[in-house]
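Interim report, section 4.2 (structural modelling).
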Amino acid sequence: MAQPVTSDLLSILELQKWFGGLMALNHVSFDVHPGEIVALIGPNGAGKTTLFNLVTGFYEPDGGELYFKEESLNGLPPNGIARKGIVRTFQNLQIFNNMSVLENVMVGLHLRGHSGVLAAALRLPSALREEKFIREKALEYLQLVGLAGRAHDPADSLPFGQQRLLEIARALAAEPTLLLLDEPAAGLTQSETLNLDELITGLREDGLTILLVEHDMELVMSIADRVIVLHYGMKIAEGTPDEVQSNPEVINAYLGADWQQDDWRSWLPKPSQLDTEVADA
Amino acid sequence: MNRTRSDNLLRTARFVAVLLLFAIPVVYLGIQRNYGVLQFAQLALDGLRGGAIYALIAMGFVMVFNVTGIINFAQGAFVMLGGMLTVTFYQMESSLPDRLHLIASAVLAVIITTLIGILIERLTIYPARKSSTLTLIIITVGVYIAMQGLGLLVWGAKAYVFPAFTTLAMTDHVFRWFGLVIKAQSFWIWGSMILVLVLLAYFFERTLLGKAMRACSVNRHGARLVGIGAERMSLLAFGMAAAVGAIGGIVVSPILRPSYDMGLSLGLKGFVAAILGGLVSTPGAVLGGLLLGFLENVAAGVTKAGMKDIYAFILLILTLLFRPQGLLGVGKTAVESSSEDQG
Amino acid sequence: MKAPDQNESKQNLIGWIVLAALVGLLGWIGITRPFGLEVADLTAGMVTLDTLIRIGILTILLVGLNLLMGYAGQVSLGHAAFYGVGAYMSAILTTRAGNLLGISGSVVGSWWWPWLVIVVGMVFSGSLAYLIGRPILRLKGHYLAMATLGLGIMFFILFRENLGFQGQHITGAFDGIPGIPRLRIAGFEIWPISRYYIFVWLLAMLVIAFGLNLINSRTGRALRAIHGSEVAARAMGVDVATYKARIFAISAILASLAGSLYAHFQASVSPIPFSFVASLELVVMSAVGGLSSIWGAPFGVAFILIIREILRSRLRQVLQGASGEHEIIFYGLVLILIMIFMPEGITVGVLNRWRSWRSREREDAALTASSGAGGD
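Predicted structure of the assembly:
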C-alpha cells in the first residue's frame, strides 16, 4: 500500500466511493503540499464535492486512504477532522440563519473555547473572559473579509455574496491548516470574484494551504498553483493551470472529442450565467 | 470495503446476543414454574396471534413512513376507530342475518376509517407539509390524542363486547390440537394479516399506483420529476394505513374488548414492531410484529402479568441501542447521522 | 440596527420584571391575604396559591424540556418518566429507606437526607438520559422520540407494578406512597405553603436564569448552530451527538428536580401524574410556550394548567359526571393548531406578529408623513 510522503500536507490515496451501483470516485490519488493553492475542477458530477465530503468526514470511503500530516483521517467524524485543522465551506451555503453575523463567526471559534454547561450557567469569570476573547477574535475575522460593519445583523439579511464571505470568515476563525473551499465563487459577481481572488491569495501569503473546487476558470487560472481535473470520478489530469488548459483529455471531457478550439476556456459559461446550485431543503 | 461488512456482522451478532441474554432468564423463570415445552409452545402461539395484530398495525406505520418520512403516531387511532365503529354498527338494528350484518359493519367501518384517515391527512398534514419532520410528528401526536378524546366523548370509557367471528357469540370455537388451545379467532387474525400482506405485495409490485408509491418512497424528488406528486402519494399512504389499521382493530376486537383507548397500547406496540422490522418494508413489519408478539408473550407468561407491556418497550430501547436499523434495515450507516443529505 | 444581543438583553430584562412582578404580587396576595382577598378571587376561582406552586414546579421541568426540544430539535414523548423518577425516589427514600435498604432511622429522619435524595435522583436521571441518549442521538431522524416514548411507558409500568415485585412495599403500586416529609433546613421547615411558594419560585427563577445563561454561552451557541445547520456545526468542530446528549441529560436532571419538589409538596405520590398522557401534556405546554423559548416555559405551563382546571370543571358540568380525561381533545387540537399555524409557540409567535405589525404601522406613518409633507 502506498505510503504518504512527508512533504505532503494532505495525501489522498486510491480513494473510492460507491453510491449504490455508481462509482462516484474511482481510485483517485493526489497530494496537497503546504502553502499551495490547489484547484479541483471537472464537469458536474465528476465527484468533486464527494471528495470534499470524504476528506471532511461526512462520507466514509469505500476504499483508499486519507492522510493529513501523516496521520490517517479514515473514519474520523467531521468534528474530529475540524479538530485536526481541516475546515471547509459549503457549496450550498450553510450559514446559521438563526444567528447574527458575528455569532456565526463565533461558532467558528468553538474549538478554541473550553467552557461547558456549568461554567456557562454559573457565569464563571473564566467563561466570561473566554466569551470576550471569542467575540473580539470573531470581529477580527469579520474585518478581514470586510463584514465588520454588519456584525450584529442577522446572518440571513446579508446579500448572497456577503454570505459567502461570512462562511469563509467562519471557516477561518477555526484557524485551519488546510482550508477547503467548495465553489466559493458560485453566484458571485465579477467584482466580488475579484475580491475573492485577493482574499484567497492573501490567505496563502499568511501560510494557509487551500484546496478549492471551482467552476470559474478565470479565478482558477489566476490563483491556483496546481490544478487537478476529475471526470466521472477519475483523475484525468494534474499540473499547472497552463499544462491542464492545453491537455487534450481535459478539453475532451469538457467539450467532446471533436472540438478544436484553442482557447476552450472562453466556451465555458461565465460565472454570472451559471445556475447556482441550490440544494433542496 | 470489507470493513463495513464485518462491522455489520458484528453488530448483528451483538443484537442477537442481547436477545439471547433476554431469553435465558425467561427460560429459567419458566422452568421454575414447571413450564414444559407445551406451555412455552402455548405462550408462543398466543404471542404469534398478538404479533399478527402488531404486524397489521406496523404495516400502516411503514407505509406512511416510507412515503412521507413521518412517524404517524395517529396510527393507533385508526385501530380504535375500526373496532369501535364495527361495534357501533353491529349493535344497530338490522334486518340482515347476523353474519351479513357483521360483514357489512366491518366493511363500513373500514371505509369510514379510511375516509377519516384521508381527512386527517388533508386537514393536518397537508397544511404543514413544508414544516420540519419534528413538527409533523408532533402534529400526529396531537391528532392521536384528539382522536382518543373524541372516542371518549362518543363512546364513553366503557369496554364493549364483540362477538367472535366464527360463532357470532361471546365464546369462541376452540381447537385443541396436540395439547395446544387455539381460538378460532386466531385464524381470522392470521388470515387477515396474510391477506393484507399479499394484497399489499401485489399492489406494490404489480400495479402502477403501487410502483409510483414505491418510487416516491425511494426518491421523492426523482418521482416528482416523472410526474408523481408527493402530496397525492401522501394522501394515498394515509388512507391505506387507516384501512390496514382498521382491519387490525376489527379482527382483534373479539379478543381484546374494544374501548376508546385501545389504540394507545396497540398503536405503540405496532410501532415498536415496525422499528424492530426496520421501517423499510411491509414484510419487515410483519416479521417485527410476529417477533414482538412472540417475545412479549413468552416473557409475560413467566413473569408478573401486569408487566406485560414493559417488554415491548424494553425491546424498543434495546433495538434502538444495538440495532437501530431493525432486522431488515439496510445498515447502521443508513441510519447514522452522516449528513449525506447536504450538497 | 441594534445588535440582536442588545435586543435580547432588553427582552430578558422585561421578562424578569414581568415575572418578578407577577410572582411577587400574586404571592403577596396569596400569603398575606390583604383585605381578605385571595388569589382565587382574582381569577374566578381558577387559580390558587396551590396552582401557582405547581406552575413553578413544572416551569423548572419545562425549561429543561424546551432546551431539549428547541435546541437539540428532538421531542421527548416520555419526559414524565424523569419527573416520576425524581418524585418516586424522593418518596421512597424518605419514607422507606429503612425497610428497603437498611438505612438507619436517624439518617432518614435527619433534615439533610431529603436534600441528598434530591441530588441522587438528579444524578440518576441525568446519567440514565446520557447513557441512552448518546447512542440514540447519533442516529438520523427522530429515534429519540421513540426511545423516550418507550422509557416513559416503562417507568410508568414500573411505578404502577411495584418495580415488578409482588406487593406494594417499594413503589406502593396503584396506591402510591403517602407520608412524604416536608423539606427542612436545620430546624427551619419549608412549610406552610407560603414558605414553599417562595422556595419553589426562587428555584424556578434560578433555573430560568440558568437557561438564559446557557443560551448565551459557547454551549448555547453550539446548540443554536446545531439548530441552524447541523452539517455546518459539525464542520466547525461541534460534537453534535454529545451536545444533544448533554442537553437531554440536563432536561432529565431538571425534570427529576421538579419531581422531587412535587413529592415534598404533595406529600404523597401515585403513578397517575407520570403517565403517557402526562408526558403529552408536557409537550403541549412546551408547544404553547414555544419550543425554544425559556420565557415561554412558565407561560406554557400556566396556560395549560389553568385551561385544564377550566375544562375539568366545565366539562364535568356539561357531560354529567363523565369520567376520563376529556381535556385531551383540547390538548390534541391545541397541538395541531399551534404546530400548523404558530410552531414557534404562542409567546414568540404573538411577539413576532406584534413586532411586524408595529413596524408596518411605522412604515405607514412614515409614508403618510412624507407624502403629506411633500405637497403635490
